[in-house]
Amino acid sequence: MDGTLFYFLGGALVLAALVISYVGIRGKGGFPANSRAMAGVLAAFGLLVAVTAAYAVANAREEQEHRNEELAEAQAEAEEGVSQGEAESDPEEGTQEGEPPPIGEQTPSAGPKAQADLTSPEDGSLEFEPNAIQTDPGRLTIVYDNPSQTPHNVAVEDEEAELLGQSETIAQAVTELSLDMVPGEYIYFCGVPGHREGGMEGTLTIE
């Protein structure tokens, strides 16, 4: 609704009040001339007040509806953005905030398959047991059992410090990391910040 009409009506109301005040002061006892004139002036003045008030209410209601529509659109856009972000990231269940999703779950190869069992102390000490693994080339599944309440995971990198895979972070649970391995020397370690630096790593030899 156009606000110009509201300002026009408001100005007319103020002007009418000034005119009536001026005429009343100038006319003194002779204003209004008679009761009909008084009734007409009051009726006109009341009508002007009523129209102005009605227009103000209608205009305020329209502005509120417009504002509600804008808020609804903004909320819909925000929800759509969150949905798109979740669809793009799609982190696996069980990973901690700020931690990369588990990687290394590759398509099983047709080569030989091997399993390496790995654990760590129940008191949460920063070490792997064993701290060295040797196995044949092919599909390797590292089964890591963390009996402590301290969260750990297992990650593998090659000689060039390139991360090949990382399991989910667990506490008092078991997780697995499967990788296709070729001959070489590798390092397995805990990817939780500070744990590797504390000594939680070992050597993986594929030959």
Explain this structure.
- Helix 1 runs antiparallel to helix 2.
- This protein has helices spanning 4-27, 35-89, and strands at 113-119, 132-135, 138-146, 155-157, 163-166, 173-181, 184-189, 201-206.
- 38% of the residues lie in helices and 23% in strands.
- The protein has two domains: 4-89, no CATH class; 113-206, Immunoglobulin-like, CATH 2.60.40.420.
- The strands form two sheets. It has a five-stranded mixed beta sheet, with no helix packed on it.
- The longest helix is centred in the first third of the chain and has 55 residues, at 35-89.
- By secondary structure, it is an alpha/beta fold.
- It is rod-shaped, with a radius of gyration of 40 Å.
- The chain contains two helices and eight strands.
Content-based structural category: alpha/beta
How much helicity do the residues have?
25-40%
Order of helices and strands: HHEEEEEEEE
CATH architecture type of the largest domain: Sandwich
Distance between the termini: 81 Å
Mean pLDDT: 77
How many domains? The number is 2
Give the gist of this structure:
With 207 residues, this protein is α/β, with parallel strands linked by helices.
SSE layout and pairing:
Elements: H1 4-27, H2 35-89, E1 113-119, E2 132-135, E3 138-146, E4 155-157, E5 163-166, E6 173-181, E7 184-189, E8 201-206
Parallel strand pairs: 1-3, 2-8
Antiparallel strand pairs: 3-6, 4-5, 4-7, 7-8
